[in-house]
Amino acid sequence: MMLHAIGLDSGTQGTKALVVEMETGKALGRGHAPHAMVAGLRPGHSEQHPEVWIQAMERSLDLALKDAGCSPTAVASIGISGQQHGFVALDREGRPIRPAKLWNDTSTVEEAEIIVDRLGGARGCIEKLGIMPAVGFTASKILWLRRNEPENYRKLATVLLPHNYLNYYLTGRAHMEYGDASGTGLMDIRSRKWRPEALAAVDPELEAKLPALEHPQDPCGYLRREISARLGFGQVIVSSGGGDNMMGAIGTGNVTPGVCTLSLGTSGTIYSYRAEPFVDPEGEIAAFCDSTGGWLPLLCTMNVTNATELLKGLLRLSNEELQDLASRADPCAAGLMFLPFVDGERVPVLPFASGVLFGLRRENFNPAHLARSVMEGTIFNLGYGFMRMRELGLQPAEIRATGGGAKSGLWLQMVADIFETPVTALEEQEAAAYGAALQSIWAYRRSKGEHVTIAEIVRPRIRPPALSVEPDPGNFEAYRAHQARFNSLWRTLAEEFRQHRLMLQ
């Protein structure tokens, strides 16, 4: 009987399930179920009930199995990718105390500042953790609960991240691996251990509420008998899982040096595998661990397809029409520059920034140049961080693109030309779910006594690229100059952004 692996990606908007043939890595079936948000919250709060994830997981799993046309008894392994930085608070019976606070919950600004101050400021954080805790990290959410809901905090027995909670539901075991845990702001990413000073900055008793950290090669456990019986499965191993970026790295073959993954979604991320710890002394590049046993320096920007969606709505364009319109303008849009900070920005650190169109003249004051400048602006924004990663020693030979923006050949050409690096879009675009499935195959094979590496699992199963783009050297000089002007402009306007925000309050 041909065995199958299942990859589940539990994100903000919904859960995606992928049934994968274990031997070849071929995707056989897909399913999706949406997530509802907790409604009526104050601005800055973003929450979901963990029960919603369970319902969506089981619904998407059922749909994927039906789509694959395979028997549940053929499933041998499950892996879970989850939205990072969330906070699931469990009581002594293992029940959620309250809704989970999500990665994009910004209600914890004060708590984040308290933690950074207690760790000795930005320099102290880098020294103790190897990473600069952002507002969205889990640590500030735990402190928020302690300060704002003391009754709920007294019930707190176990802290889990979203993917850990789904693993807990499936196996009955509380568990954390290095990758997702590195985004809590509580772990020293170099030693891969909880940092006592960071724990004390939140609660001196916090370590007792955290699962022990484990290597991601070690599985979380096996599917509970009652779940296995209800779903028609046999014995199924559940791998350690990880955060969506960590699973996206596996799903794009980014498990050895030289490969870089670029996600062009609402936000943008760039990350690359390292076999040794990576620390940015300025804290701009997040120094995460990955979910294979290595490290995953990562850049995250907040503005990519959100900017193009706004333009599409304004001009009433489809994706194809936007790309066609932008292709009519030459690179650098006749000097028109767009700072895409419509939702503020994470890197560069400009939380109070806003979008800017700079350089409007008669020859570029038209829809084609506007479309081109908006698309290019999102890549120049990523380009600032990509240049920073190169300065710190990352030299990827290939970029593998995922996300909605990766379907645009024009956008990928902009990436290739601005980054001066070849870009490919892989056949399997559900990188996080696919990576979760591949990690589960690794766990299954190791459980059978095979001393196999994750690279040996991933390499033969990554499908050929659906699209490959080579950089055009003829555009390098103009784009380098435009990138320099982009970087100069946001630095010049940084204080103006802050003053403008204060004026609007």
Question: What fold name goes in the CATH topology slot of the largest domain?
Answer: Nucleotidyltransferase, domain 5
CATH superfamily of the largest domain: ATPase, nucleotide binding domain
Mean model confidence by pLDDT? 95
Q: Quickly give the CATH architecture of the largest domain.
A: 2-Layer Sandwich
Oligomeric assembly: single chain
Low-pLDDT ranges: none
Would you state the CATH class of the largest domain?
A: Alpha Beta
Number of domains: 3
- Report the biggest beta sheet as strand number plus sense, adding barrel if it closes: 7 strands, mixed
Radius of gyration based on Cα positions: 22 Å
Helix content: 25-40%
Shape: globular
Which structural category do the helix and sheet elements fall into? Answer: alpha/beta
Brief characterization of the structure:
This protein is of the alpha/beta class and 505 residues long.
Helix and strand arrangement:
Layout: E1 4-10, E2 14-21, E3 27-34, E4 47-48, H1 50-68, E5 75-82, E6 88-90, E7 100-101, H2 109-118, H3 121-129, H4 138-148, H5 150-155, E8 158-160, H6 162-171, E9 176-177, H7 178-181, E10 187-188, E11 193-194, H8 196-202, E12 213-214, E13 221-222, H9 225-231, E14 237-238, E15 242-243, H10 244-251, E16 259-264, E17 268-272, E18 286-289, E19 295-301, H11 305-315, H12 319-327, E20 337-339, E21 356-358, H13 367-391, E22 398-402, H14 409-419, E23 423-426, H15 431-447, H16 454-458, E24 465-469, H17 476-504
Parallel strand pairs: 1-5, 5-14, 5-15, 9-12, 16-22, 22-23
Antiparallel strand pairs: 1-2, 2-3, 4-7, 6-8, 10-11, 13-14, 16-17, 17-19, 18-19, 20-21, 23-24
Helix pairs in contact: 2-4, 10-15, 11-13, 12-13, 13-14, 13-17
